[in-house]
Amino acid sequence: MINRYKRQALFILTLVLAIGALSAVAARRLQALPTFYSGHVYNGASTRCLDSGTVANAQLWPCSTSIYQQWHYNPNVGQIVGNSPTGCLDDGAGTNGTGVPLVTCTGASSQKWFYDGNYRMVNQASGRCLDADLGTINQNGTKVQVWDCGSGTNQQWFFENEPQ
User: Fold this and answer.
1) Is residue 164 part of a domain?
2) C-alpha–C-alpha distance, residues 55 and 99, integer Å
């Protein structure tokens, strides 16, 4: 009879530990999703950061303290807003390979991006993903574009944890 209670206690303890471990994994996964974000945006296929620079479209450059690499994102609004120049990322024409310009924020659906939980930023208007060009992924000035969503790390974006 005592052995039976020991087995039941061991089973319950194992179950509690397993549930706790799963909860910890789920909590870490949720922390990856921003609530409100301000800071750098890293691409999953490179060590480079999203940069608004001085050109028409966003690019990837080595991460720095440059104001061109400071972004704000509020998932309730869906806009990715750059500090310099101040503006919103826009999916442009919304076709594969279209560069992503920083334009005056208007609230248009082409300026709304939603973090899908697979680390992809999906545009509301086109349904396409923010994408770093694989042909230039490890070069300064890598093109940032929209592309059909896939499973490549070049479509994964990580927010530096600087919650506001």
Assistant:
1) no
2) 11
Sequence-separated (6 or more) residues with CB below 8 Å from residue 51: 58, 59, 60, 61, 66, 68, 69
Query: Digits of tens for pLDDT over the chain (164 positions)?
Result: 566 555 554 444 444 444 443 344 333 333 455 568 889 999 999 989 999 987 789 999 999 999 999 999 988 999 999 987 789 999 988 899 999 999 999 999 999 999 898 999 999 999 999 999 999 999 999 999 999 999 999 999 998 865 44
CA 29 to chain CA centroid, nearest Å: 13
Contacts of 36 (CB under 8 A, 6+ apart): 72, 73, 74, 75, 163, 164
Give the H/E segment covering residue 26: helix 2-31
Domain that holds residue 3: 1-31
**Same structural domain, 22 and 42:** no
